[in-house]
Write a structure and sequence with these properties.
By secondary structure, this protein is of the alpha/beta class. It has 9 helices and 9 strands. Helix 6 (157-167) packs across helix 8, helix 6 crosses helix 9 and helix 7 (172-179) packs across helix 8 (183-197). The longest helix is centred in the C-terminal third of the chain and has 15 residues, at 183-197. Pfam families: GerE, Response_reg.
Length: 223
């Protein structure tokens, strides 16, 4: 899904708030290896502009004046299986990703407009979506805890920390740096998490995506 290094990553933006859209346009335009190919405010405009081959990633608001951004994303992905999708929403509802049809569930990321998302986090999520990965909002992940009796609740404290960082889109080396442990230790923890959650480490579907979605499924708001 990642574009070749011979060209920039092409990003489309679908956001109905003019001020916020213009801010995002400036942010994306300032990144040398990105190319903003479209910036529109409605589902109809997006459907007209985002024909196959135009973009590598689409950044979607969920609430649009003429429809739903998630439904738009599903439609676009079925027409363009390699299109990455980043949901950027005012709603703190990451669990919406659990309702995605299985055939289009990879390559979706979710950031909240209300969580203090940084430009760095935005760019990371854009690139992750292009690579078919899943990145969840770091701030929102800190507000959840495992549901009683779930497989996630049976993870050790360290395994749960690794799972949360994995769901934020960090690589093994990034997790190692964050937790100040060796990369080999991280790898061991990741495989232990996969085993505890019953996730195949080498399936056709990215196991890191499966682990992130399992975290969403088996956690809820912290009391």
């Amino acid at each position: 899904m990642t574009p070749t290094t011979s060209r920039r990553l092409r990003v489309a933006l679908v956001e109905d708030q003019p001020l916020f859209r213009s801010m995002l346009e400036r942010t994306l335009a300032d990144v040398p290896d990105l190319e903003l190919v479209a910036a529109v405010g409605t589902v109809a405009e997006a459907r007209a502009v985002l024909t196959p081959g135009v973009a590598d990633v689409v950044v979607l608001d969920i609430d649009l004046p003429d429809g739903n951004g998630i439904a738009l994303g599903v439609t676009l992905r079925r027409e363009q299986p390699d299109l990455g999708v980043l949901l950027l929403s005012a709603h703190d509802a990451m669990d919406l990703l659990l309702d995605l049809p299985r055939d289009v569930a990879h390559g979706w990321c979710y950031l909240s407009k209300n969580s203090g998302t940084s430009e760095k986090a935005l760019m990371h999520a854009v690139r992750a979506a292009a690579a078919g990965e899943t990145v969840l909002d770091p701030t929102l992940l800190q507000r959840v805890s495992p549901r009683a009796g779930s497989a996630v609740s049976r993870l050790t404290r360290r395994q749960y920390e690794v799972l949360q960082l994995l769901a934020q889109g960090l690589s093994n080396s990034g997790i190692a740096d964050r937790l100040e442990i060796t990369e080999k230790s991280v790898q061991n923890h990741v495989y232990a998490v996969y085993a505890a959650l019953g996730i195949d480490a080498e399936p056709a579907r990215n196991p890191r995506v499966s682990a992130a979605l399992r975290l969403l499924e088996e956690t809820g708001p912290s009391l």
